[in-house]
C-alpha cells in the first residue's frame, strides 16, 4: 500500500530528474550528481539503506550505461554535457539511472511486482522523459527521424526494465546491521 514515504521517494526522483535535465541543458553535468546525493539523503532519512540497495543501483547504472551509450554511439540521441565522451552515456544520465534504482523497491515496487506491466510502462515512459528533456530543457536531442530514436530507446528501456524488475524481485537485500551490545 502506498505511503507518504513512497510519495516522497517518487517526488525525490522527479526532483533529481528536473535538476539533471536543467543542468545538462546548460552544459553542466554536476547538478544531477548533487541531486542524486540529495535523493540518497532523503532515501536514508525515510529509513532506506544505501548499503541494501547497492547491488540494484550498480545494476541500474550498468544497464543505463549500456542503453544510453548505444543511443549516443548510434547517433540516435545527442546528449548535452556529454562527460566523459560524446559517444558514451554522460555522467548526468547515469546518476538518473542510480536514482531510478532507489525507487524500484519503494515507490515503484508495485510496478516491479508486475514485470510485464513494468516493461510496458517504462518502455513508453522512458522515451517520454527524454522527449521532455529535449523539448523543455535541451538536455537531449533526437536525430531525425525522431520516431526511430524513440522506438529504439523504448525497446532498450523495456529490456533494461525487465532485468531491473527481476533483480528487484529476486535478489536479496543486504540485511540491516544492528549493533550488538548492552541495551
Short description:
With 183 residues, the protein is mostly helical. The protein has helices at residues 4-25, 30-45, 50-74, 91-101, 109-112, 115-137, 146-170, and strands at residues 77-79, 140-142.
Number of strand elements: 2
How large, in whole angstroms, is the Cα Rg?
Answer: 17 Å
Biggest sheet record: 2 strands, antiparallel
Low-confidence stretches: 174-178
Helix content: 55-70%
What labels describe this entry?
183 residues; mainly alpha; 7 helices
Task: Describe the protein's architecture and organization.
The chain is mainly alpha-helical and 183 residues long. The protein has one domain (4-170). Helices cover 69% and strands 3% of the residues. It contains seven helices and two strands, in the order H-H-H-E-H-H-H-E-H. The protein has helices at 4-25, 30-45, 50-74, 91-101, 109-112, 115-137, 146-170, and strands at 77-79, 140-142. The chain has a two-stranded antiparallel ribbon. Helix 1 (4-25) packs antiparallel against helix 2 (30-45), helix 1 packs antiparallel against helix 4 and helix 6 crosses helix 7.
Produce the secondary structure layout:
Elements: H1 4-25, H2 30-45, H3 50-74, E1 77-79, H4 91-101, H5 109-112, H6 115-137, E2 140-142, H7 146-170
Antiparallel strand pairs: 1-2
Amino acid at each position: 500500500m502506498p505511503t507518504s514515504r513512497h510519495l516522497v521517494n517518487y517526488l525525490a526522483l522527479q526532483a533529481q530528474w528536473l535538476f539533471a535535465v536543467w543542468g545538462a541543458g546548460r552544459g553542466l553535468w554536476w547538478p544531477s550528481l548533487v541531486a542524486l546525493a540529495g535523493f540518497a539523503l532523503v532515501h536514508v532519512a525515510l529509513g532506506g539503506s544505501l548499503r541494501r540497495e547497492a547491488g540494484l543501483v550498480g545494476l541500474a547504472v550498468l544497464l543505463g550505461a549500456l542503453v544510453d551509450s548505444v543511443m549516443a554511439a548510434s547517433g540516435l540521441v545527442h546528449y548535452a554535457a556529454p562527460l566523459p565522451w560524446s559517444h558514451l552515456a554522460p555522467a548526468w544520465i547515469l546518476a538518473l539511472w542510480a536514482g531510478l534504482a532507489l525507487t524500484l523497491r519503494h515507490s515503484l515496487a508495485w510496478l516491479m511486482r508486475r514485470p510485464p506491466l513494468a516493461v510496458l510502462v517504462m518502455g513508453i515512459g522512458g522515451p517520454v522523459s527524454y522527449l521532455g528533456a529535449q523539448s523543455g530543457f535541451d538536455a537531449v536531442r533526437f536525430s531525425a527521424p525522431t520516431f526511430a530514436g524513440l522506438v529504439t530507446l523504448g525497446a532498450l528501456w523495456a529490456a533494461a526494465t525487465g532485468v531491473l524488475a527481476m533483480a528487484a524481485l529476486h535478489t536479496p537485500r543486504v540485511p540491516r546491521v544492528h549493533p550488538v551490545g548492552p541495551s
